[in-house]
Write a structure and sequence with these properties.
Immunoglobulin-like; 7-stranded mixed sheet; 2 helices
Length: about 475
């Protein structure tokens, strides 16, 4: 009797079917939310409807990111209990078919150039030399077979798309909405701005764009998109083998509908696209961030610590700086993410000409934006040392003459900024200076169109010197 029961139990175990996978593709998707960070990270929230049986279900979530961070996975849903997950990132490709078929019988085909007839044989795939198969054909080893390899089956655990297989226990048989939350690499964004200057460089129109790049190996259709500006700390670590990214990128797609809304989240800023969008694999897409007209700007020609010669220097060119305030009164006032601003201006024929670019950091409301646009062509300065004395140890007094020339057709104002050492003071000057910092003097000099202006000043610098081993 005992042996009969054991046999019956063994038979019963053999005939019980294994739990079949429930394949849940993107067609079951109900909602897709993507939040992309500056640090090549994205939070993906993928909600799908699944017909589940009471008890343990093996659910294959297909079409997820091939650069998922498996340990970040969080499953949410009512009436379920999450048991385990397995990320199968070996997807169908020629390389993976070869790798997974080592030791199997494959079909090989070779077109004989003499007869023009295809020769077909069965072969054992023994090993790989790189991606060159080593085959046993008709009892002989061939390491440089000139034909193609045909596969007789799809190896186990090889899938058409990256798939997360999860064991989930349901309290009843029912349709469940499951939300898969996970972090992924391969999705990134950056901000870019385009400015159009008016004729006299006093105002501009400014358009901002968010450029999205998808190298995650997966398409995201009808996604609700948000991006986060700010440097979120992430732990860097070496990850296991991932899919080889396709380097080729599609031409950038541009969406010019309503701009993104913004809100503050803790110490970061969140930008929300007010519509759904598609982010395709190996694609760069641009979406509108902001659009503002009549933004007031201030243009400065700056000589920054350039005009203190030992003897004489000529034709020093100033840096062209453009500044504007990020305020509501100046038609802006939203948090501006880090990015590059490119400046354009019309020529006499109405053609747009590129006049410079610079990178800005994350810029909050009420902050000033300062741009370096290069050096001026028509403005220059000559400087010479016209007097130098040393009235005491560690004390020098020097007098400079600076001539600023303006070859343009417009009156300009230049700013001269100089750094000094130790304890210093201006003894005399042809026009009053300011002291923006403890080490700097600043002069603002008006220069007429087609003319020149002069600035002279004398400065005393006192640097501590050692006397009997002590600084004095």
């Amino acid at each position: 009797m005992k042996s009969f029961l054991l046999a019956l139990c063994a038979t019963t175990m053999l005939i019980l079917p294994a739990t079949a996978e429930i394949n849940v593709g993107v067609e079951a998707q109900k909602k897709l939310d993507i939040v992309i960070y500056n640090s090549d990270r994205a939070l993906i929230k993928d909600s799908r409807t699944v017909n589940m049986q009471k008890g343990v279900n093996e659910i294959a979530f297909a079409g997820i990111s091939s650069q998922i961070i498996p340990e970040s996975v969080l499953m949410a849903g009512t009436g379920i209990r999450f048991l385990e997950n397995n990320f199968n990132y070996d997807v169908l490709s020629y390389e993976s078919l070869l790798e997974k078929s080592v030791g199997d019988i494959v079909t090989v085909e070779y077109m004989n150039p003499k007869t023009g007839i295809a020769e077909v044989n069965q072969a054992e795939l023994l090993a790989l030399n790189g991606m060159q198969p080593i085959l046993r054909i008709n009892g002989k080893i061939d390491s440089s077979y000139p034909g193609r390899v045909l596969f007789n089956k799809i190896p186990a655990n090889l899938r058409a798309k990256p798939t997360l297989v999860m064991s989930v226990e349901s309290d009843q048989t029912a349709d469940r909405e499951l939300t898969l939350n996970y972090m992924s690499r391969g999705l990134s964004w950056n901000a870019n701005y385009v400015a159009r200057l008016n004729a006299d460089d006093t105002t501009m129109s400014l358009n901002g764009w968010v450029s999205l790049t998808n190298n995650s190996g997966t398409d995201y259709k009808k996604a609700n998109l948000q991006v986060v500006a700010g440097d979120v700390n992430v732990v860097r670590q070496i990850m296991p083998r991932m899919l080889k990214a396709n380097i080729a990128m599609d031409t950038a797609m541009v969406e010019t509908a309503a701009a993104m809304g913004t809100e503050s989240i803790g110490d970061f800023h969140l930008y929300t696209l007010p519509r759904q969008t598609d982010i395709l694999s190996n694609q760069t897409k641009q979406v509108s961030l902001l659009s503002a007209d009549n933004v007031g700007i201030h243009k400065t020609y700056l000589f920054d610590n350039q005009l203190k010669p030992y003897d004489e220097i000529k034709q020093v060119k100033p840096r062209v700086e453009m500044t504007f305030m990020n305020t509501a009164e100046n038609h802006l006032g939203m948090a501006l993410p880090r990015g590059i601003i490119r400046m354009y201006k019309e020529d006499s024929r109405g053609q747009m000409i590129f006049v410079g670019e610079d990178r800005i950091n994350h810029t909050g409301n009420l902050e000033e934006v300062r741009l370096n646009l290069g050096t001026a062509f028509d403005i220059s300065a000559d400087a010479r040392l016209i007097g130098s004395t040393q009235p005491a140890a560690g004390v020098t007094e020097k007098e400079y003459e600076i001539t600023i020339k303006n070859g343009s057709q417009h009156n300009v104002t230049v700013t001269i900024l100089e750094n000094f050492n130790g304890t210093w003071r201006i003894l005399k000057e042809s026009q009053a200076s300011e002291k923006p910092t403890a080490r700097q003097a600043q002069w603002t000099v008006a220069v007429p169109a087609g003319g020149e202006s002069k600035l002279t000043y004398q400065v005393q610098e006192r640097v501590p010197v050692k006397h009997n081993g002590r600084l004095q």
